[in-house]
Design a protein that fits this description.
- Its main location: membrane.
- One of its GO terms (molecular function) is calcium ion binding.
- The chain has one helix and eleven strands; from the N terminus they run E-E-E-E-E-H-E-E-E-E-E-E.
- By secondary structure, the protein is mainly beta.
- The strands form four sheets. It has a four-stranded antiparallel beta sheet with strand order 8-7-10-11, with no helix packed on it. Strands 5-9-6 form a three-stranded antiparallel beta sheet, with no helix packed on it.
- Strand 1 and strand 2 form a beta hairpin.
- The protein starts with 21 loop residues before the first strand and ends with a strand.
């Protein structure tokens, strides 16, 4: 019930060089659980923004009245990575020793925000649901930890996909839960849900 809403929400997106450079934003109005109406869209060209500073943007909504006020920081991606199994970041014994020293009891209070990091190897899925008429699916896997989200590539026409990717997340809260969701890619339509598992960090 507001024409001037304030959300004050922060979102972290991991921007890699192989992704598109435009940040797409949509503003929606919700009457009830069933009815939604698009109030406007706008775009931010990430490549045009200065690095390592807070950019205050007032973006007019396209083809609709109103504007969106937001703060955007573009910074080098630290602590988050996607790699192949053959170049696993924890595979080097000397690196493992450095990490052990970094998070030893003696260094616990050196950086309070640096709790640690989580490394997940997504190998494969088995006996997935067939989402297409052909009896196959086009599965990809999304990993979410807090407000960090990374995903695998899509393996087409396969119910037993192998991804063999290594994902590394910085841990901001030891009480977070790692959520791993498998979707079926469906062209321009929203992906179909194929399954999900939730793993509390305290259980690892």
């Amino acid at each position: 019930k507001s024409a001037n809403p304030q959300w004050r929400e922060q979102f972290d997106f991991h921007y890699f060089s192989d992704r598109k450079d435009m940040l797409d934003i949509e503003v929606w109005r919700k009457d009830n659980k069933k009815h939604e109406e698009l109030l406007g869209t706008c775009q931010v060209d990430i490549t045009a923004l200065p690095m390592k500073q807070t950019n205050c943007l007032e973006l007019p909504l396209e083809k609709h009245p109103g504007s969106l006020l937001m703060l955007v920081d573009v910074a080098p991606c630290t602590g988050v990575s996607i790699s192949d199994l053959c170049v696993c970041p924890l595979g080097d014994p000397s690196e493992r020793q450095q990490i052990s020293q970094r998070y030893s009891l003696r260094n616990s209070f050196r950086d309070i925000k640096d709790i640690g990091f989580l490394q997940v190897k997504v190998l494969k899925a088995v006996d997935l649901l067939a989402a297409d008429f052909s009896g196959k699916s086009d599965p990809f896997c999304v990993l979410e930890l807090g407000n960090d989200s990374l995903q695998t590539h899509t393996v087409y026409k396969n119910l037993n996909p192998e991804w063999n990717k290594v994902f590394t997340f910085p841990i901001k809260d030891i009480h977070d839960v790692l959520e791993v969701t498998v979707f079926d890619e469906d062209g321009d339509k929203p992906p179909d849900f194929l399954g999900k598992v939730a793993i509390p960090l305290l259980s690892v």
